[in-house]
Amino acid sequence: AVNATYCLLAIIVQIIQKIVFGKLRSIEYQHMRDKFWNFVFYKFIFIFGVMNVQSLNEVLVWMSWFTCIAFLLLLTKLCKDRFEYLSFSPNTPMYYHWKVLGLLVFIISCCLLLTVSCLTSSLMFHTSRTSYSDMHSMTFMLAECVIVTTKALHVIMRYGIHLYDIQHEDLWERKATLVYHVDLFMELLTLSTNFLHHLHMLFSGNIWLSMASLVICMQLRYIFSEIQKRLLRHKNYRRVVANMEAQFPQASREEIEAQEDQCAICWEPMENARKLPCGHFFHSACLRSWLEQDTTCPTCRKQLDIRNTIRRDRPARLVPDGLNDPSKQVTSFGVVQHRNHFWHFDGPRFASWLPSFSVEVTRSPHGAQAMVTTTTGMPTNQPSNSQLDTMVREVHDIFPQVPLQVIRNDLQITGSVEATTDNILEGHVTIP
User: Fold this and answer.
1) Cβ neighbours for 226, distance < 8 A, ≥ 6 positions apart
2) Which has fewest Cβ within 10 Å: 56, 136, 236, 354?
């Protein structure tokens, strides 16, 4: 009977794959495999370490239960991966979306059915255990159903936002904000439920000083760190939004029409935009998403004055002292960031025979390290007038605030768009 049931389940999986997904992509197959073996490992620890089952009937019941949960959990993960793939394909037929949404509704219905079964049939089996143990077992089962349901609802909500957006031709600027807050709420709900579920495992039975307790403690530590990272990212998000609204004003209709340009982040026309100090315009939602990752202009890479934000692309560490060191930058969260000191001498700007060299001092926990880069100042072939005009226009498109003659004078010395761009960013070019 057990073999027949698993064979029937395998046939159902094959049918669902053929109807809803078709051929799986390699990344989807890899995610399914990793999720499956991770699930098997932790549930093996749960059955024989936390529940400490003794009879074969209990082993079969728990294996049947976790087979159903694994089936629904893997389908949810596959729906999430497929949604992320389809959402970036603008010409996807609608029936592909409806098939995935229908499968998500089926997953939630199965979770509700399992929940009702737990509540009405006394764990679907009767053993010699006490009612106290039965309550713990029922709580474990309900937690699994809640986690799967929450993940499936998260994908459905993202799908609803995406389908609403593609039905409208105009740009929906509030989409990014809505998606962010949906992700924040659902991710925190899933992590919190998972954390309480593992905490219940740790305190429900006598598993102290065992391998099961060690595995559960490691998982609790991981989930808690994920919650901290998510909350820290939200604080950073709020600071970025506050600083963006305070420092970068909304561009007027006349300024936007004078640009006749598209947002360089999403490549969509701009009806409302924010103006950066360098003269470039971007959608508010696009700029906010960009500033969460980087604090430079997306077009010209000019450093923006975003105060009290954390650069996540730079290493940071927590230190209890040394806050008065001028080479360190301390944020409001107590995170200390080490600054790199860079000095560059451009010899060919003064004489063609002089060399160019750079000195960069990097501070690390193990001390300061210096790196010197030297380039010779041998004269190179000067570009022709047509090439020079093309290079001037290219640089001027990036830095519209710099006069053309200033760009031309520097290009005649450097002969390179990259070198002139670096000189403007580093302040080596005097702008009247």
Assistant:
1) 191
2) 56
